[in-house]
Amino acid sequence: MAETDLAIHAVDPALAASPWPVRDGRSRNHSVKRDAVIRAAARAFSAHGYHHTSLDEVAEALNVSKPTIYYYVANKEQLLFECFVAGLAQIQSAIRKAAKSNRSAHDRLKDVIRNYALAIASEYGWCMVRAEDQDLGPKLSRQIKALKSEIDRGLRRLLIDGMRDGSIQQCDPKMMAFALAGALNWIAHWYRENKSMSAAQIADAFVEVFSVGLIPRKDGANSAPRVTSRKRRSTKTNAR
Amino acid sequence: MAETDLAIHAVDPALAASPWPVRDGRSRNHSVKRDAVIRAAARAFSAHGYHHTSLDEVAEALNVSKPTIYYYVANKEQLLFECFVAGLAQIQSAIRKAAKSNRSAHDRLKDVIRNYALAIASEYGWCMVRAEDQDLGPKLSRQIKALKSEIDRGLRRLLIDGMRDGSIQQCDPKMMAFALAGALNWIAHWYRENKSMSAAQIADAFVEVFSVGLIPRKDGANSAPRVTSRKRRSTKTNAR
User: Which helix (H) or strand (E) holds B12?
Assistant: First the structure.
């Protein structure tokens, strides 16, 4: 198919289904087109599942031929890998930015939670959460595991920093990081069925859900052992 | 295979790989054996994935023939359904018990979180979380959705009750229920790779992670809008 056939779609690249008509020089456009291939694949995998999606369908969604897809990625497995990477990149970038910031760990964690939620609510969410690592070969799978580990370490680091700088409630950083990541990852399970909220609204809601609970308590329930005494108090509250 | 061949395994039913040798009357044993079939299927699905598990393998794990499996379930799809049901039953039962209790909603929610974590860390966790609903036909899938909805409603109800009886921090019950369920469901993703903790330890850790954060704040950060002022305070704490 001639690229010019699609020129009408190129008016607003953000809205365009395919970026092929934009002709501003090969090298500059290569990454834009590659991103479009990855994004289209993410949407197709999310809609039909990885195993039920063919590269023909990805090509069709972009109005290009399958050989065009092969110009940007080696095969379907690499495409899934790139979807993982594209989604994880947003979280990774927030984690790296957080590591360099001088703000309180609580504020930095809020930024990470927001970006994490936005990434999971994006078209890459399905690949990041619901595609199986095992669909990738050992080498690519190791790379994804390394990226995920970096995010896990980043979350734990922020929690530990927050306990040190006094901006985050005392907690088990490993379990809290698992809980945070789990709650955020799970967005990919329910969001597809419930699009009544925008990704930004979901991100705000999750920042709020965790934010208050993570603030250090000045009211006598700062550490786990004190939960028992709080429990008794809660029961009294209930009884009155 | 003759059932008596396996009599040696029947000394301790809790440890036995197969309950067939126990001969205490058909009707009483039927449900024990059926449970064993479902449990063996759950383990096989979790180890190899639903699509890569055959009923022959489930039968082999129990040292019985495939026709024996068909005596308890109609087909592989029903087996997956029963795995969902078995896992969800523990959470459902905790939710129903919680609804009848007079204790504070915070304490009741802690019980539900504990049972939820135990269920997900059990052999049924993979089926409940990582098997796709779409592997079930429309009718069975609707039944699973209904069970999951009951659990979601139960969590929201406890959160709302807790905001009313003063035992739970003000929050958006819908988002908090999604966050809780997501964090707990996610255990099925990381627990298989990290068996250094027992299911009970994980359950304790998750009760603790959520418990402190959900206690109402008496220190001026009781509702979402106040997070902003807390945020500023946190930053100050950081700067000093």
Answer: none
